[in-house]
Amino acid sequence: MIKEILKSTAVAVIFAGVFFSSCQSSAEKSDTADAKVQDAKEDLKEAQKDANIAAQKAVEAEEWKVFKADTELKIKNNDTIIADLKAKMKVTGKKLDAVYAKSIDDLEQKNKDLKNRMDVYGNNTQSDWNAFKREFNHDMDELGKALKDLTVNNKK
Length: 156
Known about the structure:
There is one protein chain. The protein is mainly α. It has a domain at 63-155. The protein is 89% helix and 0% strand. The protein is built from 4 helices and no strands. Helix 2 runs antiparallel to helix 3 and helix 2 runs parallel beside helix 4 (129-155). The longest helix has 66 residues, at 26-91. The chain is rod-shaped and about 130 Å long.
């Protein structure tokens, strides 16, 4: 009988210990809940950041396609202008000075270099798109101005 009372008492003490140790105070519960809410907010911010990056890459990919098509058209137009200049040089029968012929060759090389830069950038997704676009457009505009200046000088 004493053994049963001791067993019962021991079991009761164990249950009481488990019961009281597993219970948290309301302040502890609040702190735990606050931590979980903060973790959830951080996870949400990270997910939004990832979604924004993915959306930006999609926009840049579409913008790249449009930019590339437009630029390829400009490069082809430049090729046509250069071919016309070379044809006029041969048709006129006049021997144009070497400086003029060299200018045409230089512009042709610059046009080829721009095409190569475009191809190289298409393979490099790590580059800064906005910086590339700004520099490329500047170089393309400079080439266009040089071609116009050369044709104006040719007409005189």
